[in-house]
Hints:
189 residues, 15% helix, disordered N terminus
Amino acid sequence: MEFFAxxxxxxxxxxxxxxxxxxxxxxxxxxxxxxxxxFSAVGHEHWVEAPISEGRIxxxxxxxxxxxxxxxxxxxxxxxxxxxxxxxxxxxTMQRTVLESEKYPEIRFRSxxxxxxxxxxxxxxxxxxxxGVSKAVVADVRRESDAxxxxxxxxxxxxxxxxxxxxxxxxxxxxxxxxxxxxxxxQGN
Length: 189
């Protein structure tokens, strides 16, 4: 009987996938911030780079993904429609007013369930901690070559963040944010 228990334990250990460290230099996380309101045409949509500071991935039956972003390092991506001065103003508003990154310097995600959704595709449910609030979010993820690519959407107000409003709300940031990511495990862990 002991032999079978030991064999089952060893089989379980051999089948369990080891964790892979996320290659933070080769991974990307970008947030699309849309615009809304009656005069939204005068507002700017923008994209924010949110560099992953650490994380890990585990494949297999006990799949897991978790990562952290240093909110203080998030930055508005340059584009041709926004001047350097406007970008600096958006950056400051994002850091001080929206994220309050000095008070809430870390954003964390940890999966709680990974469900197959087709060949090399999954629905990943997890807990996102942002602005001091933890809520469940869902991401659609697919594997392409050596990367996991996906999208998630959530409302800022779910995390206690009030979307920026200008001119009494005739121009405002959309409540819903779209997060796009490409996460690569480090090769040769």
